[in-house]
């Protein structure tokens, strides 16, 4: 019975239902008590979505699963009916048992090529039908009745095999491209890290130093400390910078200084969870600092009364630097707004001690430190990693002449803008390649991928043979059951 609104197909093809060619949903149950310990047990979680790669393979002994299982044989098409939009379909390369959420589909290769069936189940036309009829809001699945009614495009058997061979070749090329694209994010990430390392070690501006006269870094540091002494009266001594053997070399005219010496204030947000309000003063935590920016899109709010109580101690202003210190540590952002907001304890505030401190350069130094962080020696915490303020104050910052800091920030922004462009282009390329797979499958099931052969047995005659074979199999099964019943008398 033809189902669905099929596009015009080649004259020797046929649109029908899945239930016309296979007994969808008819599975052989496995008795858990009799499963061999070395039997392969396949769960849905073992299959990667979309790619359908088997990510892990565990035995019954390793799984120790007691839930009901379906048996499958080598060559069966295994279809994940739960959350079918994940497109989890594999061809078994060995026998085993699987979750009841996986439907084994056995194809007689003298009638239907199992690889042809596999590709059809992954095609956009089949997925569109499944998406429409799946039931269950949180755990949608394809029911047996709807599975039998699903559309199926039947091509002549020889053409099925030609289509599959062509698909194997083309989709292998697509897979190669996808793998190469999947490697690029790590390359771009390493590029950013290399730029940071070159920036704060002075390598990025080696030629610039030769061509430019700069101020004495000692004079800059003295001016910063003088400005700091006006703002900070509580301490006159600074902690020594936390230097370790592996700290990187810096140019002779640079100097290592502690973060504390560059800041008039290093403090974290309020230590108790405030009462949130529907509106009011934005209250920021780790989740609100992403990709070097402060985002107010999903922040909490507190009342004006609470704000007035907590703001004097921790008062972020434009030009200050924020760094997350709990949970996901090391996210940084320069405050670029005049809007008033408050911070939770998970975020630390660093205020520059002087206008001579380029907080964008300090930000680069902190991000470089985060990339190579030694959690065991510098970060305190157990279940939740936590960077304490005392650890931050002794962080060693490579301090360059002010003019060179400005040039370094400019160059880093330039290189990072290039990386941003590469990431956008990569995302677009990945989308095009992802669409390419479905475009190829659509072309295959329109009869446009390989030429038709007029000598091939037409699909309508093939369907008649399929139905005859299924009818014969049913008769044999009934006869076998009858014989088994008679033998017990």
Low-confidence stretches: 375-384
Count of individual helical segments: 14
What's the CATH architecture of the largest domain?
Answer: Alpha-Beta Complex
CA gyration radius, whole angstroms: 33 Å
Category by helix and strand content: alpha+beta
Terminal Cα span: 42 Å
- Portion of residues in helices? 40-55%
The CATH topology of the largest domain: Adenine-n6-DNA-methyltransferase TaqI, Chain A, domain 2
Describe the largest sheet.
Answer: 5 strands, mixed
Number of strands: 21
Number of domains: 3
By CATH reckoning, the class of the largest domain would read: Alpha Beta
- Mean residue pLDDT: 90
Strand order of the largest sheet: 2-5-8-3-4
CATH homologous superfamily heading of the largest domain: DNA methylase specificity domains
Tell me briefly what this model is:
Keywords: Coiled coil, DNA-binding, Endonuclease, Hydrolase, Nuclease, Restriction system. The chain is α+β, with helices and mostly antiparallel strands and 489 residues long.
List keywords for this structure.
489 residues; 14 helices; Adenine-n6-DNA-methyltransferase TaqI, Chain A, domain 2; 3 domains; single chain; alpha+beta; four-stranded antiparallel sheet; elongated
């Amino acid at each position: 019975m033809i189902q669905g609104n099929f596009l015009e197909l080649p004259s020797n093809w046929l649109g029908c239902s899945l239930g016309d060619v296979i007994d969808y949903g008819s599975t052989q149950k496995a008795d858990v008590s009799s499963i061999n310990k070395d039997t392969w047990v396949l769960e849905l979680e073992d299959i990667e979505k979309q790619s359908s790669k088997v990510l892990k393979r565990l035995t019954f002994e390793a799984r120790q699963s007691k839930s009901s299982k379906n048996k499958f044989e080598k060559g069966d098409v295994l279809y994940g009916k739960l959350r079918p939009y994940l497109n989890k379909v594999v061809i078994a390369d060995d026998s085993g048992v699987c979750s009841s959420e996986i439907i084994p589909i056995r194809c007689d290769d003298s009638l239907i090529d199992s690889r042809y069936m596999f590709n059809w189940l992954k095609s956009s036309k089949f997925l569109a039908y499944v998406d429409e009829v799946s039931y269950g809001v949180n755990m949608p699945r394809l029911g047996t009745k709807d599975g039998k009614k699903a559309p199926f495009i039947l091509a002549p058997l020889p053409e099925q095999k030609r289509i599959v061979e062509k698909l194997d070749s083309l989709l292998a090329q697509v897979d190669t491209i996808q793998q190469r694209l999947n490697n690029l994010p790590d390359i771009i990430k390493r590029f950013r890290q290399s730029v940071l390392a070159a920036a704060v070690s002075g390598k990025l501006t080696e030629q610039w130093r030769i061509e430019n006269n700069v101020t004495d870094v000692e004079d800059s540091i003295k001016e910063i400390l003088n400005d700091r002494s006006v703002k900070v009266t509580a301490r006159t001594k600074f902690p020594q910078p936390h230097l370790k053997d592996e700290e990187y070399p810096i140019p002779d005219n640079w100097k290592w200084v502690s973060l504390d010496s560059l800041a008039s204030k290093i403090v974290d947000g309020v230590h108790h969870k405030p009462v949130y309000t529907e509106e009011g003063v934005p209250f920021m935590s780790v989740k609100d600092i992403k990709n070097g920016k402060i985002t107010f899109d999903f922040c909490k709010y507190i009342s004006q009364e609470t704000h007035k109580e907590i703001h004097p101690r921790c008062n972020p202003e434009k030009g200050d630097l924020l760094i997350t210190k709990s949970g996901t540590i090391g996210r940084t952002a320069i405050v670029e707004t005049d809007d008033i907001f408050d911070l939770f304890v998970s975020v630390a505030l660093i205020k520059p001690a002087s206008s001579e401190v380029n907080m964008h350069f300090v930000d680069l130094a902190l991000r470089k430190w985060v990339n190579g962080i030694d959690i065991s020696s510098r970060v305190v915490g157990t279940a939740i990693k936590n960077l304490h303020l005392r650890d931050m104050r002794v962080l060693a910052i490579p301090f360059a002449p002010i003019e060179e800091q400005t040039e370094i920030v400019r160059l880093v922004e330039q290189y990072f803008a290039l990386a941003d462009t590469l990431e956008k282009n990569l995302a677009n390329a990945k989308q095009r390649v992802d669409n390419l797979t479905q475009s190829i499958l659509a072309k295959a099931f329109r009869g446009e991928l390989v030429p038709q052969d007029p000598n091939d047995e037409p699909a309508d005659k093939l369907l008649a043979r399929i139905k005859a074979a299924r009818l014969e199999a049913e008769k044999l099964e009934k006869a076998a059951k009858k014989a088994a019943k008679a033998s017990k008398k």
